Amino acid sequence: MIDLEGETAIVTGAAQGFGRGIAERLGEVGCNVVIADIQMEKAETTAEELRDDGISVEVVECDVTDPASAEALVEATVDRFGSVEILVNNAGGSTTDHFDDLDYDTWSDGVSLNLSGPFNCTKAVAPVMEEHGNGRIVNISSMAGRNVTVHGNPAYTSSKWGLIGLSKHSARDLGPDVRVNALCPGGGPSGPLERGVTSDDVANGVLMLVSDLADFVNATVLEVDGGGHVNQRPDYLEKPPEEWPDFLQDQ
Asked: What domains are defined for the chain?
């Protein structure tokens, strides 16, 4: 059984979706969990629900696109728990603009959230992890950052590719005190496993990467897509986004 009792994990964008699932799973194995989000009402609701399950949770308001906010997040976490062993850079998002319709501001906002955000949080937490050793960072990329454009606009696709590059480069520079890996969710009902990815799937992948089971896993990419990338382009991608499967609409 994986036991992370007493360790502290920051999960960005943990008020809902994949982030919430990750926070819950890490809490279940003993982590103190810091929910970092800009949606404070949702974050507080999530925190209360996790506390009801016996999980140690704190909420810190954080805009990951702002370096000062990321630094304040880490400082607040250390003040509360003494250290940070785990960072999951999950916060992200996208619109569905076609390239021809994508304006500069939308491009800039997407890259700032999906790529600069993880950089800011990693930059802020790295000194703490290097001081204590055995730090683990997981960057939530996407299968759109591997070999297919699953959804979103060019800023989303480009930043998720870039996040894999950031993961590999920071793994090289921060080792041996910090391991950095990327996880790519994806896959739909047309994949070999014939179902969509769930928050549990992603949370289990993160848990493996931050556990002792992955002590020698560094600078790698874990594809959590049910093998969907080996299939042809799903039929639903030929339809408007509002007609895509529910599992894509909900994340």
From this structure: 8-249 (3.40.50.720)
